[in-house]
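Put briefly, the fold is written as integer tokens. One such record reads:
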Amino acid sequence: MAVVFNILFSIYFVLYLPFLLLRGKWHMGFCQRFGFLPSELVTKLSQGENIWLHAVSVGEVAAMEGVIDALRRKYPERRIVLTVTTKAGYSFAQRKCQGLAEVVWSPLDLSPTVDRFVQVIRPVIYIAAETELWPNLFARLSRDKTPIIVLNGRISDISFPRYSVVKGVLKGTLRRVAYFGMQSALDAERIIELGALKDTVRVLGNVKFDSIIDAGSADLRGEGLAREHLLLVAGSTHPGEEEVMLDIFQSLKRSSPLIRLVLAPRHPERSAQVGELVRQAGLRPVFFSRNGRVTVQDDVMIVDTIGYLLQFYSAASVVFVGKSLTVHGGHNIIEPAMFAKPIVVGPHMQNFKDIVQAFLMEHAVIQVEDALGLKTAIQQLLQNEPLRKDLGDKARMVVRRNRGAVERAVGMIEAVLKDK
């Protein structure tokens, strides 16, 4: 089975390589992903015991911040090695985890590559954020009797049917995992149905509820955004959503002279495209990375750098969370909620279904069906400060009531390491 998987993976990679080159996704880290690790890194990792934690991209790294910090305090004598897959995730991890973890590019799941990584890292435990299942890596870790844990596991509505097609193959990989810490009861049911042993599955909750500390609003006067402005922040937007937000802004700014718009595309590489949309709307794009200032109402701030969205969420008057109106899936609403901000989302929040449901049950988020509903909701919120405060306070309370997953996750890790 491993031979077949290696062949299929190699064919896939060869076919995918032109896409990587054309889209600018190839980077120097790919050499590291094949197991060509710097000699100084190999020497460093050979000294002492290592806890290996894997997070694919920005969202997973951000979610694991609390876990990494807790493990650093719990096991100061052990090194945390954080492997990351995407360029954005690697850059974010380098900045956020400096002094907490050794950030390394993740291995491609080929037998020679994972053999090299395991030999170098020699982990006392392997922790995968969310549901990252790698057959060759898990097989090699199992041969070395290294315990594997999945934390913050979830099986989305979209991925579950896909996994179900290959559940016969997946079963062997799932049964190499010591424990699954799943986000919800539904996620737990699904991973068991796919082949995980029932007594290895636990419902721990979502560590993202623990990932943001209580904080006040950021001071954005350096960007020309004063506290008296009504700041409309559209976070993690996808194609089609920027146009809708620009239309809404154009409509509302005539009657609201203090309104200002911030667009934060989920993929910063789209920033130039978003800037062109702003120009086509007759407005002026101001790029955050270029130290641009919003000087008049027709200036639209574009957050074109990873890692600064929270700063704008914290200062927002109203937040729209993207990938929920024109694209399916949704993004994390916990971040603006922790800052007690009124949040509006579209109908497509499948990847965060349990989280959104928790907020809807407490009337702590507004979910709309279409662009017209989004405009109406934003207009009502901008014109009604008590309504904004009430919605934001409820959102923050939902976050506070659902905290504790990090503590439960660290308890699971501690139990596994004691058994080992």
Summary: Residues 147 and 416 are 7 Å apart (CA to CA). The radius of gyration is 22 Å. The longest strand covers residues 230-237.
